[in-house]
From TrEMBL:
The protein's name in its UniProt record: Zinc-binding dehydrogenase
Domain of life: Bacteria
Organism whose genome encodes this protein: Enterococcus hulanensis
Pfam families: ADH_N, ADH_zinc_N
Domain annotation Enoyl reductase (ER): ranges: 10-315
Keyword tags: NADP, Oxidoreductase
InterPro entries: ADH-like_C, ADH-like_N, ER, GroES-like_sf, NAD(P)-bd_dom_sf
Keyword flag Oxidoreductase: yes
Amino acid sequence: MKALYFEKFGGSEVLQYGEIPQPVITESEVLVKVDYIGLNFADIYRRRGTYHIEKHEPYINGYEGVGVIVEIGAKVTRQQVGETVLFVDVPFANAEYVAVQSEQAIQLPIEIDSQLAASIGLQGMTADFLAHDLGKNSPGEKVFITGISGGVGQILSQMLVADEIEVYGSASSAEKQALALSHGVKQVYPSRETSWVKTLEGKFATAYDGVGSTLQQSLALIQHRGKVVFFGMAGGDPVKIDPVALMSESKSILTGDLWDYLTSYEERKKRSERLFSYFSKGQIDISEPSVFSLADGRQAHEFLETGKSIGKVLLKP
Ligand SMILES: NC(=O)c1ccc[n+]([C@@H]2O[C@H](COP(=O)([O-])OP(=O)(O)OC[C@H]3O[C@@H](n4cnc5c(N)ncnc54)[C@H](OP(=O)(O)O)[C@@H]3O)[C@@H](O)[C@H]2O)c1
């Protein structure tokens, strides 16, 4: 089968496209013929060698995809051949076929097609745990989201708006700012300049920060007893934080990794159903994904890495 792989860590130039052996499933796995693969910022960190990646020779990136089950293991009872499933935490996804543990395969409701599922799976499940397990905001509370028109940002902001939270955020371009406003966000500030930060200091219950280099700014934006929900470094590593300084203002930083919130079939089912229900009710609308052929994976990495994308980047085998 064809796959996108790399032999050493580095820039997008390390990515190669070629033939590798097709996976052989175990009795608890299903074999998925992949329709769409979700590209994520974590794949960039993995390619650079700065984030956990499953051992394999050569390395095969990617943990998120949607496809049709073409074979099931002898002990699999939850799924059937021919069903379309989503997975968000399965390694070696940058390939035509992926072996998926039955408990990691998520069934899709009729109204969610495979391209939409691949566009919202990992980022949507992330938005779900950030909002419902970490942020836990009450209706009427004010929150701030950095990178509000990125993939997680678009879903998280609309999820919170639907939950009656007052959402504010930052985005770099006029196009991204307009997009967030069209999603019911109250006000969007330019992310590449900071003159507005002073006027908003201490105004928010929670700042959701997946940009990372903005951590100090997010801490300034929250009120005493407020919290920063820190979940990524798309814009660069955060500064080191002094816990004593946090304590003196009763501010907290909460963090989380999606995989710790997807530890069983039941948890995947509960989270995916809650996520899909926002879409079924028409409460979340996302931009069209940018689709690259898997063979053009290098260009897709460069597109995501430079922050040019609005919404999801997909790879199609
Ligand atoms: N903790 C978890 O479990 C988890 C799971 C999934 C994702 N994440 C993290 O969530 C963050 C957002 O992920 P995503 O999939 O939504 O990515 P994305 O679609 O690429 O969005 C990231 C946003 O970050 C902003 N940004 C600011 N400075 C940037 C820079 N120097 N380069 C690139 N982007 C920059 C961009 O918005 P502007 O151009 O408007 O500033 C961009 O829209 C990432 O840090 C990712 O690692 C964490």
